[in-house]
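Below is how a single chain appears once it has passed through the pipeline. First comes the sequence as given, then the structure the pipeline wrote out for it. We keep one example in the README because the format questions we get most often are answered faster by looking than by reading.
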Amino acid sequence: MNPKNTRIAIILVLVLCSGLIFIFPTEPVLNTRVLFDDKAYERIENEKVSKDNTNLILIITHDDGKELTNNLTRVQKLLSLKESIENNENNLLFLDQNGSEYISKIVSPLDAWDNAFNSKNRSIINASRWADVLQPPIENGWCGENATNEENIAFQSTLLLLPNNVKFNVACPAFSGSSINQAPEANELLWLIDVEDASNKELDVEWSLILTWAEKISQDTEFQITPAGVNMLFAKSQKIAEDDLSGLLIPSLIFLITILTLGLRDWRVSSITIGSVGLIILAEIGILSSFGFTISIVDAIAVPIIMGVAVDGAFWYCKSSRNKEEVRKMLLIAMITTVTAISLALFSPIKAQRSLALIMIFGIILDWIVTRFVLEDFYLSRRRKFDESHKIKKTDYYSNSTFWPIALVILATIAVLSPPSVDILDVKQFLPNDDPALNELDTLQSKYILGAGTETWIVIDGDGDSPDDLDKIQTFQKQLSNHPSIISIETGIYRSPLILGIPYSEGSFENDTINTILDDFNDLLIQTNPKLESEGVTTGVAISVFIDGKDSDAAIEFANDVRTLLSINNLDGEIGGDLVAGAELAKEFGETRILQIIYAGIAVLIVTFYLLRSPLKASRIAIGTIAIGIAVDGMASIIGSRGVHTAPAVLLGMGFAADYLSHASAEHPSTTQDNFARWGAAISSMSIFLLLGLSTFPPARNSGRLLTISILFAVILATCLSLLHKQEEEE
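Resulting structure:
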């Protein structure tokens, strides 16, 4: 095909692909589902017959911050407010104006209390004072042996949805300081809410809508409604990321154009290079969104990274001393080696790492295609004539031959001296350390049993019509209830581990099955039907367990114990949940991170040997790539924290190392122009990464800092390697 026609065809395809954004719009998201895989949760999503509470937490207080639950008038008003929302009075049910997202369920402790009193023919709504429902006294309160089922639920709701330091009073007079003649005393309580869309499917909540909804109700009533919990923190971190990355886009463009113009001394080249990068990014997003690819807010970090990488071609075509064929070959090798190093992340157990790697690889390949087939002739037309006097002379580098081994030793030293710790992947990795929301989460976790625990899922295979399977699962639940990691409701006379699975009663029949027990299951306070189904056939059950949310080591131990217990009972299943999955991923990453770096180096070795046909050059590129990989991994721990969230930056750093070292290994006498091209490209890339390093969003900030370090290490090491190669050639 004619080169001109090729250029037109490529540009046309990219423009059309960019237009796909308007046909398949995408909204970056941030939650644990896009960060890592969870087989247990995936089965629950696909097979659970009834959806569980999404653990969206609202804290309810009165405007004056004082007594709430022991003030009957305020209790009645809250019950009325909940009813008004559920009945959609004044359009309170809907989160948005078009009615596509709405509150589908509210779990309130006050409803449980009302039901408890109703079971004794007493009514909160019709009472004029608390004594009307508390007299005559209810013997032993709601936690006694003779309590009704409604009273048991009311007791549980008091424990779970009111702060730990309350006077439980009638809920359980056995608690110290409680009175059978008083209502529970608390100045705040929790609501648990579910959100659905118009198609009656649960969704990833747009938290800005919940915030607006909560603010509206707070303004219109005498109560303050405050969204809280882990989901809220993910929403906040997503907002921080969106604001940061969008706010950095324009400054990054201006900064990069300025650096390119100063370095290349050609505003046309700078402008067209930036324009091509923008087109590449839009086309890539359009293609991925058209295939239903879920783009996380973490993936958005790839945008400034691709911008930083795309400048290489402009500098090497416009400023180096190499002819067209040499630059072609050099950039091809650089692209292949970079993609090779990054591609190791495609096999990572970390979903976010695979996703970011895919976007980076796609962007790098598209950039190479555009540089090679669209911009090449334009770049060459803007090149100034090469002056042979700029060729590096033999006397310029003999004394520098030791720089290469010295640089390798320094990089290895950084790796050895770095702290070995690895952080768990959780919401705290996505918020600044000084963010007050983290303190609010700690407060929530310390004040509430429900806040202190994190939900862990155990999915167990089972035949719905098999009495034997039911017996084995119930036996498993009983054995599991004694595990020390499980949070329990305890009064001194009462203990109930927070295990939400198949209910058990002494009155169960011998031939009961999963189906006979669960077909008539009525949703409880925080539990829905645990049955799993596929095409109308029961496939098992999903047991929800609340464990200590602050101890990742205990979570790993708990997961191992669950798997052992499943095996002992001849059961097949999966364990999942945010803490368990995040902790196990962090442990796996800590154990395999160096191996991943070595594997990436071996892959680079194989590819460069095939391309260069030189064992010595291939070995040096591979060794340099590994050295930078372990050094950047070490720097992640030194400047902040090492974890699965920093792993992509390490592999990208290795990709840059392979890129720059490939440049330095080309069969061409070194010139000052080549060094200018190398350092010009590096400085331009670092300028973008430095800006990214100023972000408030921790993954973006850490990636920016680590990538800046990566480029600096890579360009220095590549310069040392070019001098070493040149010495060998001259000798």
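The first strand starts at residue 56 and ends at 62.

See the next section for the split statistics.
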